[in-house]
Design a protein that fits this description.
heterodimer, A: 67 residues, mainly alpha, 2 helices, B: 465 residues, globular
Chain lengths: 67, 465
């Protein structure tokens, strides 16, 4: 369950990283806002993706067959 | 000398012991794994520099797109038709297969050459990271003509980053590898985001209607920067092809493809080529054009994506330098008796750190990549000749391994001779590897054919007598 939640949140963060420059390119947000959103989404990506990797490592240690 | 040499090669064998047996069928990997591996490996810090250099070398839009499409296709085909078939047939790493063919002595030389080349590459990665961190301290980065360190600040910066990277590699290579897995999708997004965000600065409209006009006039306008050689279609095509020459034609990716179910898995390399060596190079070209054609990866990414961008360049340099330092350490371990891994990685790191101070490896990265592939390419030709051509010419394979020789003298002659010929070839550095490769193939087979005839003659004479 956690794996799915973490993977989903990580993917959403990465999509936000991609959406921010697109919206800026279309002229809907300012450069400052784009860079702020990109930074925040990047921090979330690293947080969730790292947790996901740790979760996977724990699963492997405990011999889970989920992977 | 011979005794100490064999001791060294014994140690080397021990290091690679876990790779000695061919991969068993239960350990084969899925195609998706290969796609992910290639996509992650080929979106690296070097991409910030290479794509930008094409702009500075005055590549035109047409030459760039056609060159990259064809060159990357040739690279994919090289993995598919040259590297993967031999790997899936032998299920061995290049290390063990080369040992059978060329002997442990030549294997040692190959390893050492690889180690030094890895150190230089990691040094270039440290320099890329330094361009990002240098922004915070206002340190000027070297110009495109610089060979020696340009300022005291640059030396301090690269030394500091090199030492930090080395310490981190010593403390936990595996943890950093996992961190690199987390980084690679984000770094790819950073390329796309950076290019997209800088397009308005170049005057591209939100509906993309003038993109190609802007691309032709402001990005790949065919005008080389001052002091830079003008590149054409052939330069781009050949560069995209030989960028990973040591891996495909040079066969070092046998280590990877021995886990492939079929040789056709070589086609998965397209994920690395067309995401990293196509899209990412195009993106970095857009970024460098938007900042006034200055070779400054850190500034490029900072202007494109702010603090996250500069951090991205720093992280990309770090995560690329880390495995490179590890591989260099592994290769160097053979000449450092009884040294623990940390000590060897530390030594490789210190050598790399010193090399990173010299901007020549960073500002001449394209030439360095060409030389790197060129030096290791003849080894790939030797292995291909022994594996595929020897049976055709009815020459006995693996004579060096069977006779337990330390050196395959003919392989050494072909390797050194090919490099010597390539050095004097009156063509551009980027194109030298191809005639060199053909020469190495032909020369290696010929030397064995001549030897075979010499061996047959005395026997024939005896029988007739």
């Amino acid at each position: 369950m956690w794996k799915i939640v973490l993977s989903s949140l990580a993917c959403i963060s990465l999509l936000c990283c991609l959406a921010a420059p697109l919206i800026y390119f279309l002229g809907r947000i300012s450069e400052k806002n784009y860079k702020g959103i990109f930074l925040l989404a990047s921090v979330f990506w690293f947080f969730f993706a790292s947790l996901r990797v740790l979760q996977r490592k724990n699963d492997q240690k405990s011999g889970s067959i989920g992977e | 000398m011979a005794i100490s040499f064999s001791r060294i090669t014994d140690r080397m064998d021990h290091l690679y012991e876990f790779d000695r047996e061919p991969v068993s069928s239960d350990k084969l990997q899925t195609g998706a794994r290969f796609a992910g591996l290639f996509a992650g490996e080929h979106v690296a810090a070097t991409e910030f520099v290479i794509g930008a250099f094409f702009v500075l070398h005055g590549v035109s839009l047409y030459d760039l797109f056609l060159g990259l499409i064809l060159g990357n296709l040739l690279a994919v085909l090289s993995w598919t038709f040259i590297c993967a078939p031999i790997a899936t047939r032998t299920r061995l790493t290049l290390y063990w297969y080369l040992r059978k063919i060329a002997g442990p002595g030549l294997n040692l030389i190959y390893n050492l050459a690889n180690a030094i080349l890895y150190c230089i590459l990691a040094g270039a990665m440290i320099a890329v990271s330094a361009t990002a961190l240098g922004l915070a301290f206002g340190i000027a980065i070297p110009s495109l003509d610089d060979v020696l360190p340009s300022s005291f600040g640059w030396i301090c910066l690269t030394l500091a980053i090199g030492i930090i990277f080395t310490i981190l590699a010593v403390l936990g290579f595996e943890k950093l590898s996992r961190f690199a897995q987390v980084c690679s999708p984000w770094i790819f997004i950073l390329f796309i985001a950076g290019a997209l965000a800088l397009l308005p600065r170049l005057g591209v409209h939100a509906n993309f209607d003038n993109f190609f006009t802007v691309a032709k006039t402001k990005i790949w306008n065919g005008v080389a920067a001052d002091g830079q050689e003008k590149f054409h279609l052939a330069h781009v095509l050949f560069f995209a092809w030989f960028c990973n020459l040591a891996m495909h034609i040079g066969l070092s990716d046998m280590a990877l493809f021995r886990y492939a179910k079929r040789w056709l898995y070589g086609l998965y390399s397209a994920f690395g080529m067309y995401l990293g060596h196509f899209l990412a190079w195009i993106c970095s070209g857009i970024m460098v054009a938007a900042i006034g054609r200055e070779m400054h990866p850190g500034l490029m990414a900072f202007e494109a994506a702010g603090l996250a961008g500069a951090a991205g360049v720093f992280i990309a340099g770090w995560t690329t330098a880390n495995p490179t330092l590890y591989r260099a350490g592994l290769a160097l371990q053979v000449i450092t008796p009884n040294w623990p891994r940390w000590k060897v990685t530390l030594s490789a790191g210190l050598l790399t750190t010193i090399l990173s101070c010299f901007p020549v490896f960073f500002v001449k990265l394209l030439d360095y990549v060409a030389i790197y592939g060129l030096i290791l390419m003849p080894v790939g030709a030797i292995v291909i000749a022994e594996h595929w051509l020897f049976p055709l010419f009815k020459i006995e394979q693996y004579q060096t391994g069977k006779n337990k020789k330390l050196f395959n003298g003919r392989a050494l002659i072909v390797w050194a001779g090919t490099l010597l010929v390539c050095y004097f070839l009156p063509i551009h550095l980027f194109f030298r590897w191809l005639p060199g490769y053909i020469l190495a193939l032909v020369a290696y087979v010929l030397l064995h054919v001549i030897r075979k005839k010499q061996d047959v003659k005395p026997g024939f004479a005896k029988e007739t007598i």
